[in-house]
Amino acid sequence: MSIVVKDVVKEFGKQQALKGVSFSISSGEIVGFLGPNGAGKSTMMKIISGLLPQSAGEVEVCGISNNEYNESFRKKIGYLPEHNPLYLDMYVREYLLMVAQLYQLPNKKERVAEMVELTGLALEQNKKIGALSKGYRQRVGLAQALIHDPEVLILDEPTTGLDPNQIMEIRNLIKTIGKEKTVMLSTHIMQEVEAICERVIILNRGELLIDHPSTDLSALQKSGSSNVFVEFDQSADSQLIKSIDGILSVNELSATEYSIEADTDVRKAIFNFAVQNQLTILTMTQKEQNLESVFHGLTK
Fold first, then answer.
1. Are 49 and 74 spatial neighbours (Cβ–Cβ below 8 Å)?
2. Per-residue pLDDT, 54
3. 4 contacts 24 by C-beta, under 8 angstroms
4. Contact 101, 94 (CB under 8 A)
5. What is the distance between the alpha carbons of residues 291 and 29, in angstroms, rounded to a whole number?
6. Which of 56, 191, 199, 274 has a C-alpha 20 to 30 A away from that of 183?
7. Cα→Cα distances 270→148, 155, 194, 243, 245, Å
């Protein structure tokens, strides 16, 4: 396993940010690491990276404990934090050469040239970092995280603040990198997870909520619930609609439109209800569950 996390607890004073979290990630996986704000995602990523000690539990990266924060451990991990820290007065190529020197790479200039090519920085490499757009600064951050050829890449919100074109470019870059490395990706953009990741881990309030081998979480929706939108030709009694077997709640959108949450497929029952009450159904659609809607249902 590239990453093994076992019963990790993290306390900040009296507040417990992580409550006995356990999971493992195999080599070559691209894993989406999700959760609402305050769930403990960034804390967990810092612990895995060796930047923050856990209060209890064990973490290993490529067989090395994060308590042994030495040269061997650091070489296993590439880390891009949420707030990408860069030296804005340095030139791109100058900065990457400095990072290569810190890792004591024997072929610094060649490796910098490779990273410039991989991350699409060729036209920007002679500019100061402070003069770059946020998209190119993220590329510089990825280049520094990859320059020492780590086995594990940890990315915390890598596309925050980027425009749609920049997001697509960074996604494609991560997918390319993920063919050879283990990638742990934290983001609030569900479409990003669906586009890139093969597996989803969800934290909520410091606890492991979901560890699923696919981004298709529709089967995990609480109580197997579904959402149906229906429009009748005239007003109906919301309480009567709610009395239909399987319906959990009814939200009246207008005099004739209703949003219905149910724990099963109730479309046939709604049709029968309409016939019995001399109503005509003008529209009835069942909302498809995607990762975003399931995530909301699981963590709200």
1. no
2. 95
3. yes
4. no
5. 19
6. 56
7. 60, 46, 32, 11, 10
